[in-house]
Structure formats: structure tokens, C-alpha cells
Amino acid sequence: MYQTIGEAIEVIGVYTNQTFAPRKFLWQRQEYPIEKITFITDVRDGITRKRRYSVVSGAQSYRLLFNRNEETWVLEELWVES
């Protein structure tokens, strides 16, 4: 199940054919290389546009949320085995 984190992160990525792809993120002073993007979806929170990326780094799955209005990143959730 996913555990809510909700912490600000820094993300580095590349643009290819006008589409952004995150390549790694920095969380709690540790760098996490993104090996695979499993899902991308656009969401709205009122008038705020956001883009959610489900990614894999190592053996872990994460959900990263990009606020398109403020141009900020949040580590939204982390998959934990229960």
C-alpha cells in the first residue's frame, strides 16, 4: 500500500519531444535515480494543474507530484509492503 509522505523534493529530468521525463530526485539529502516511469496522469485541484508521475527507483515505487502552476515538486507517496 502507499504511505503518504508529502515532502518537497528536487527533480532533475529531460525534455524529449516537448515531454518532460524525470530522471532522478533528491529527498532527505539522498539522490534517487529513476529507472522507470510506470504512469503519468494530469490532475486538477480546483484551478491548480498538477502532473503525477509513478516511478521506480531501486526496489521502491514512488509517486511524484508536480504543481504546474507553482512549478514545485512533492514526494507524494512511497509504496510499502504490508
Q: Give the helices and strands as they follow along the chain.
A: EEEEEEE
Radius of gyration over C-alpha positions, nearest whole angstrom: 12 Å
Strand content: over 45%
Structural class: mainly beta
According to DSSP, the number of beta strands is 7
Provide a count of the helices.
0
Shape: globular
Helix content, binned percent: under 10%
Low-confidence segments, given as residue ranges, are: none
Distance between the termini: 7 Å
Major sheet: order of its strands? 3-2-1-7-6-5-4
Mean pLDDT: 96
- The biggest beta sheet, please? 7 strands, antiparallel
Brief account:
It is built from no helices and 7 strands. The chain has strands spanning 2-16, 19-27, 30-33, 36-45, 48-57, 60-67, 72-79.
Kindly list the characteristics that best describe this protein.
single chain, 82 residues, globular
Map the helices and strands:
Elements: E1 2-16, E2 19-27, E3 30-33, E4 36-45, E5 48-57, E6 60-67, E7 72-79
Antiparallel strand pairs: 1-2, 1-7, 2-3, 4-5, 5-6, 6-7
Structure description:
This protein has no helices and seven strands. The protein has a seven-stranded antiparallel β-sheet with strand order 3-2-1-7-6-5-4, with no helix packed on it. Helices cover 0% and strands 78% of the residues. It has 82 residues and is an all-beta fold. It is globular, with a radius of gyration of 12 Å. It has strands at residues 2-16, 19-27, 30-33, 36-45, 48-57, 60-67, 72-79. The protein has a domain at 1-8 and 35-82.
